[in-house]
Structure formats: C-alpha cells, structure tokens
Design a protein that fits this description.
The chain is globular. It has a six-stranded antiparallel sheet with strand order 1-2-4-5-6-3. With 155 residues, it is α+β, with helices and mostly antiparallel strands. It has one domain: Hotdog Thioesterase (Thiol Ester Dehydrase, Chain A, Roll).
Length: 155
C-alpha cells in the first residue's frame, strides 16, 4: 500500500520524462537491473529483481545495492520537483539496514519530506518482497542539492 504523501507541485510540467531520461543515463542502475517503476511529484519507486550477481555471502541482496536503490529513489523523488534547467546530487544520507534484503525483488520508495530551491530533504524505505510478503529492510534519510543551471550530460 502506497504511503500518504504531502502534496507537491512540480516546477517542470515535463518532470516525469526528464526524470526517466536521467535514470536511463545511470549505468549503475542498468548494471544491477533496476527499473524506475513510478514517477510522481515528490515520489518515485525503483524495483529490483534478485539476481545472483547482486547477492552477498548469505544469499541476500547486498547492503550496498540496497543503499544504491534507496539513494536513487529518494534522489529522483527530489528531481521531480526541480526546474527543467537543474540537476541533483546527493549531499549526504544515512541508512539503517534493519532486516536482511531477503526477497525475490526489492522495492525502494523515495519521497520528498521538504522541498527547497537548493536543498531538498528526502527519505526512502526499501522493502524485500518474498512470496508477496513485504518486509521493511532499510530506511534512509537524505539531503539533496539542486544545482540550478547545471543540466546532466545527454549520453
């Protein structure tokens, strides 16, 4: 079930396509097999199927991978609220791994907590899904910097 979100108005009417285009530029997400499944103002979801290449020694999805999708989900949630001539960078984040990422897939739900012109505060929850049981495996809080007038590369 989706969380109740604060109402945010995007500054860019074409935010969804801009965010999806940015995600396609992230070769790291392609490498691990992640998909940007949902893009809404102030909210995104990244879905990641389990593959042997992203597991650790116990067979769980590696904590570093959990951090990657949490960082990207929350960062792209922030990016939905920036202007069309801005890009975003993570300034810091803190993640708590609270259960093993023991699932057939992971879902990272990123959302904006506070939106400012330069700094945005975000959070992400990551769930491991196994036999349709959702287990919260990580929570993250993040600060994002909106870089006005600095677009991303195009390829």
């Amino acid at each position: 079930m989706r969380p109740e979100l604060p109402m945010f108005q995007p500054r860019d009417p074409a935010y969804a396509e801009r965010v999806r285009a940015s995600f396609r530029l992230q070769q790291a997400m392609t490498l691990i097999g992640a998909e940007l499944a949902i893009v809404e103002p102030g909210y995104t979801e990244i879905h990641l199927p389990k593959r042997p290449e992203i597991t650790q020694q116990h067979g769980f999805i590696h904590g570093g991978i959990v951090g990657m999708i949490a960082d990207s989900a929350a960062g792209y949630a922030a990016n939905t609220l920036t202007s069309d001539d801005a890009s975003v960078l993570t300034v810091e984040y803190k993640i708590n791994l609270i259960a093993p990422a023991d699932g057939d897939r992971l879902v990272a739900r990123g959302e904006v907590v506070k939106s400012g012109r330069t700094l945005l505060i975000t959070r992400a929850d990551v769930y491991a899904i196994k036999d349709e049981q959702w287990t919260l495996c990580a929570v993250m809080q993040q600060t994002i910097m909106a870089m006005q007038g600095k677009k991303e590369r195009t390829q």
